[in-house]
Design a protein that fits this description.
Blueprint: H1 2-13, H2 20-34, H3 37-40, E1 43-46, E2 50-53, E3 61-62, E4 71-76, E5 87-102, E6 105-119, E7 122-127, E8 131-134, E9 138-155, H4 159-168
């Protein structure tokens, strides 16, 4: 099908002096906008046991830190039905810092960049390949002076409810 579209573009549209690069860019943007998050997140499953998530298929969403200026995005990669005991996903921070209360245990594996966790006035700085563990009932500041992307695993899986419980008290 892509070859047919490509041929139509070459036969009919290029006569209008529009560059192939611009047409390709427009087509790619349209196709991307038509794809849903579930279609983009590539999961390989074996019955009810193994889940393989293709990292390059993760589509990030805005993460509400309370400050609209923060550049923080995330994506949980397994549903609570797929993984009822633990939440997993990715979080990205770009030149931002935000306070966060963890009513749950969290393990963060830094995939790219620099992640800073500040607790009780002390800053812990991790880089790609490092792991940071934050126990439940801990208030921290997450930050990155430039950019970071990390994988998180949180226990229990309803971590968002545990944040809201503390914030409403």
């Amino acid at each position: 099908m892509n070859n047919n579209i490509e041929q139509i573009v070459k036969d009919q549209v290029l006569d209008l002096n529009i560059s192939e690069e611009l047409i390709a860019q427009i087509v790619n943007e349209v196709l991307t906008s038509l794809t849903t998050d579930e279609q983009q997140l590539k999961k390989v499953t074996e019955s009810d046991r193994i889940r393989l998530i293709r990292g390059n298929s993760v589509v990030f969403e805005n993460f509400d830190t309370g400050n609209p200026e923060d550049k923080v995005t995330f994506k949980e990669i397994l549903t609570i039905e797929e993984c009822p005991n633990m939440a997993t996903g990715f979080l990205r921070i770009e030149e931002s810092a935000f306070d966060w209360y963890l009513g749950y245990d969290e393990l963060d594996y830094i995939v790219e960049g620099t992640l800073e966790i500040t607790y009780d006035g002390k800053k812990y700085t991790g880089h790609a390949g490092d792991v940071i563990f934050i126990p439940k009932e801990t208030a921290v500041t997450f930050s990155s002076p430039d950019y970071c992307k990390f994988f998180f695993a949180a226990y229990p899986a309803n971590w968002q409810d545990l944040c809201e419980d503390k914030q409403s008290n």
